[in-house]
Prior knowledge:
About 45% of the residues lie in helices and about 20% in strands. The chain is built from eight helices and seven strands; from the N terminus they run ββαααβββαβαβααα.
Amino acid sequence: MPVPPLTRHGEIPDLVVPRAEEGGVEFQTLGRYQRRQLEIDKILGQLFLAGISSRRLRQLSEALYGQRVSATTISRTTAHWAEELEQYRTAPIADEEVEFLFLDGISERVRELGVERKILLCALGRTAAGKKRILGFRLVDAEDTASWKALLMELKVRGLTGKHLRLITVDGCPGLLAALKEMYPFQRVQRCLAHRLRNVVVKLKRHQCGPVMAECKRVFAAPSKSEAARRFRVWVQRWQVEA
């Protein structure tokens, strides 16, 4: 018995496909020999990436759409996503377009043999026009020099030589700073403002956080270097006494 087509609205039983003598009939909902809408595959892939197991996905597909997809179908769907991901990670980078580079490591829970914590190293590029793009990423066990160097090497191989970089912003990780000295030794490097502010917050009492941070941000938002220095002196004089 043929399996009925599967759409986002569920199964369509007893679907009759019209035949034409000359052939060449195209349909909007399902392509030729297609048994599922592409939306179904996209949803399954997104759920899998969110950490849902293959077994649970088969159960969900039956509950949502009335048809249990096979483990092979799920594997094929996720394999397609893996191919797209690899194409994105290896795509050439136009060096002249990237003026600002942001580097940071993010701790994430990852399902492998079990669920464990890993570090996702991320590289975000920004053009002079303000457009942002994730240039590269790498899942590693530790945020050390070797891991960061491997990611930076990938960026260089893909075209990011750094000739047009005006500034690299980092979180202050020692391993990253060491890797940058090797891979981009002549580019300016700056500590991320958000990370600097977090270091200030841990030194404050709870009731001080709001006003101290508000005034601190005004220092970084100053229109000139001299005005920033003036605001900083005022900020220090006030909060050194109260702290």
